[in-house]
Amino acid sequence: MSSTDLIKELRERTGAGMLDCKKALTENNNDIDKAAEYLREKGMAKAAKRVGRETSQGRVISYIHGAGKVGVLVQLSCETDFVANNEDFEGLGRDICMQIAAMAPLFISEDQVNKDDMEAESRVIKAQLEQEGKKAEQIEKILPGKLKKYYSEVCLLNQAYIKDNTKTINDIIQESIAKFGENITVAKFSRFQVG
Predict the structure, then answer these.
(1) 160-161 and 57-65: which strand pairing?
(2) Which residue among 91, 145, 162, 184 sits deepest, i.e. has the most Cβ atoms within 10 Å of its Cβ?
(3) Fold entry, domain 57-108+155-193
(4) DSSP per residue over 34-45, as a string?
(5) Average pLDDT by consecutive 10-residue portion of the chain (195 residues)?
(6) CA-based radius of gyration for the chain
(7) What's the rounded Cα separation, in Å, for the pair 180 and 161?
C-alpha cells in the first residue's frame, strides 16, 4: 500500500488531519494500527486539557424509540456554534440519546449521586455480603468494586456504550473532544416512557 493510501485509510479510521496522519505513520514505521493508537493517545491527551473549558454553546437533541413508547431529550454542550451545528456532533447526541433510551441512567456522572443514596446502596451491598457469609475485612475489599458496578448502571458517563461495550459513554465523549478540538459535556437529559 502506498503512503498516500495509508494516510487516506488512517484518516478514514481516525478522522485526524492529513498532516497528523502522515506524522503518526512516519513515527510508527507505517504500521497503521500503531499509528491509529498513537493518534488516539495524542487526541486523548489534548482532550484532557480541554475538559475544564466552558461549554456555553450546543444543542438539544431528541430521540423517539420504537412506536413512540420511549423518548429522550439531551442537552449536549460545546464551546462554539460551529461544532454545535456539525453533523457528527448531532450524531454523538443521537448516540447518547439511544444510550439513555436503552439503559435508563438516573444521573449524568458520579458526582450527581447524592450522599444519602450512596450510603443506602452501601448498606444494601454490605447486608447482602454479610448474608453470603463474608467477613468485615472481605466486605471492605469488595465494596469499592460493587459501588463501581452501581455507578456503571446508574451514571450515564460510566455506562458501557451500547454500540461498543469496550468503551464507556465518557470514552466516546473524550474521543469527540479530541476530534472536534473543544470541550463537550452532557448538560442534562430527560427520559420519558409510556406505561
Answers:
(1) unpaired
(2) 184
(3) Tetrahydropterin Synthase; Chain A (3.30.479)
(4) HHHHHHHHHHHH
(5) 78 68 85 80 56 74 91 93 91 97 95 87 89 87 89 95 94 88 92 91
(6) 20
(7) 20
